[in-house]
Amino acid sequence: MEDPPLPPAIAKGSACDQLHRVAQRHRKEHGADALCCFLDTHACICGEVGRKYVSPEILRLNESFSRIFYDIYMEFVNDREQLIRRPVWGDAFGLYWNDGLFMSPLALMVVAHIVGDLPVALYESNFQNKTSFENLFDNDIVPCLNKTRSQYSVGDGLFEKMLYFCAIYFPGFRNAAIQDLRMFAWARYQNLKRLADSDTRSF
After folding, report:
1. Radius of gyration of the chain (CA)
2. 3-state percent breakdown (helix, strand, coil) of the chain, nearest 5
3. Which of 135, 118, 107 lies closest to 34 in space, CA to CA?
């Protein structure tokens, strides 16, 4: 079987490439569920960023953030005991196994990845330009959110329908919430840098 085509500028074997491939495999094996939606959106974003930018720090961030989630997905597939030890991710995947839920686990996946994983990716990539970080949201993240939001069905229950209604008909609220999470992640990144710097000072 031929490898699926790669988006432009996505290097074969990169974390973004691996995300695209597991997204396609997951859809084929499990259908368009919440995890498929998260994978598709993440793969879209890393593909857009890899295609449009030449900035080394943006490309490092793109690769690191993609690799972190690829590793988490593989833990879900192969080593769920390890996944349980990850704050919020264990809850997100626990909800994912609850039949009839879609928006609730998806929302927790977003929180886990942005609040928990994004500061680590920023630190690993030694990201410096906050303006570039902020601009990624409107230029690359929002278009992918809009592209994938209408491709998935809502889960069962009133809360699920309310979350879906807000995401579809009030994307401004969704965008503001995600942007707030990203700014919180940036603040956590500053804390990680302070902690790293503290290693060189006497305690």
Report:
1. 17
2. 75, 0, 25
3. 107
CB atoms within 10 A of CB 185: 20
Query: Measuring CA to CA, which residue among 116, 121, 110, 124 is closest to residue 39?
Result: 110
Angle at 14 between CA 12 and CA 16, to 5 degrees: 105
Q: What's this model's pTM, rounded to 2 decimal places?
A: 0.86
- CA distance readout (Å), 183 to 135, 147, 164, 188, 200: 12, 23, 24, 9, 27
CA distance linking residue 99 with residue 120, whole number of Å: 32
Give 49-105 pLDDT, tens digit per residue. 988 888 899 999 999 999 999 999 999 999 888 888 888 999 999 989 886 678 888
DSSP 50-110: HHH---HHHHHHHHHHHHHHHHHHHHHHH-HHHHHTSTTHHHHHHHHTSTT-SHHHHHHHH
